[in-house]
C-alpha cells in the first residue's frame, strides 16, 4: 500500500514508523530528516487543495493527517472530493477540537461530563465573570493553539492577564471553566464514525518544569499505558466515547479518524478536559510503538467506513517518552543547535520533532526537538530506558523534565544537566 502522511513533527515520524514497519511504501510532506530512512519526503505547498492534488498525483491509497491545522483547513474534504481515502475528520467534524466553545456546548447538548464552564466573546464580560470565581480557574483560548492556549490561573490577576492576552486578537473567544482535580489521562479512539477501537491509555506531562510547574507546552513526556482503576475504561466508553460519536452522527457531522479524549479522573468519575481531532503529540510517540497491527490498514478501513475493531491489536508492553526541548522553549526556543544522535537498540526510537539539515549537519529547528521513546515489559523499565536513551543524545543546553511518570510513583533521574 502507498501511504501519504501529512505533517513534519514527532507525531508524524511515529506514524511513518508505524506504517513502514508493516512494509508499506510511505510518502510524507513536508516531513523531517528523521523520516528519510523510512519515507520518501515530498515538497509541496501545504494548503488542502494542493495536498489533495499531491495525493492523486502520487497514487496514494490512503492519506493519514497528523496536525490539527490541516484538518481545520479541510484536507479530508479535499481528498474525499478527489476520491482519495483520508484518515481524519472533515472540516465540520474537526470543530470538536478547533472551537473549544462549540465543543463545550456540544458536550452540554449530549450530556458528556466535563467541567462547569462559560464561553465569552466580550472581554469585559469575561473579566467580570472571572472576578466572581474562586481561584484556581482555567482560562482557555477557544481557537487552535497547539496545546498551549490554556492557563491555570492561581490568582485573579493571572486570570485577567490570560484573558487580556486572548482578546488581543480580533474575533477571539475565551472559555472559563472550573478547575478539576485528579489524574489527567488520554484515551484515543480509532473510529470510522460508528465503530471504534481504543488505544492503551496514556499520560502526558504538559508543563515545562518538574512538579507540573511553569508554562504550558505541547507536551514534555508520556507514559503508556496509564494504570486505570477497574471500571474506569468502561465508564469512559459508555459516558464519553460512545455519546460523542453518536452525537456527532446525530448532528450530521460523523467523526472519522482519531478521537482524542483528554480526561480528568475526578472523584466523581472521568470528565472531558478537551477533545482533539487527531493523534496527540507526544502521545502518538508512546502509543504507536505498542501497536502490533497495521496502522495503514486500519486508517484505510476507517476512511472507507468499515473499521473492524477486533483487528486492532496492541502489545502488552509499556512505553515512555522523554521530550528533549530547545533552550528557551516554550517562549523563544533557540534554533540551529548541532545535534549528535546515538545508535539505537531494538526497544528504542528517537523521533524527530523539530530538526533540520543545514550545511551538512543535523541541528534543532523548533521547540520540541526530539522524542526519546523506549518500550519495555514494565512502566518503570520503560521510563528508565527512555531516560537512558535521552542521556546518549548530544544536544547542548537542552531542557527535559526529570519526573516523567512521577505522578504515579515512578522514579526519574535526579541529576541535572
UniProtKB/TrEMBL annotation:
UniProt gene name: purD
EC numbers for this chain: 6.3.4.13
Reactions the enzyme catalyzes: 5-phospho-beta-D-ribosylamine + glycine + ATP = N(1)-(5-phospho-beta-D-ribosyl)glycinamide + ADP + phosphate + H(+)
Domain ATP-grasp: 104-304
Classification via PANTHER family: PHOSPHORIBOSYLAMINE--GLYCINE LIGASE, PHOSPHORIBOSYLAMINE--GLYCINE LIGASE, CHLOROPLASTIC
Superkingdom, natural source: Bacteria
Cofactor requirement: Mg(2+); Mn(2+)
Pfam families per UniProt: GARS_A, GARS_C, GARS_N
Annotated family: Belongs to the GARS family.
Keywords of the record: ATP-binding, Ligase, Nucleotide-binding, Purine biosynthesis
Recorded GO MF terms: phosphoribosylamine-glycine ligase activity
Pathways involved: Purine metabolism; IMP biosynthesis via de novo pathway; N(1)-(5-phospho-D-ribosyl)glycinamide from 5-phospho-alpha-D-ribose 1-diphosphate: step 2/2
Protein name (database record): Phosphoribosylamine--glycine ligase
Gene3D superfamilies: 3.40.50.20, ATP-grasp fold, A domain, ATP-grasp fold, B domain, Phosphoribosylglycinamide synthetase, C-terminal domain
Protein source organism: Deinococcus taklimakanensis
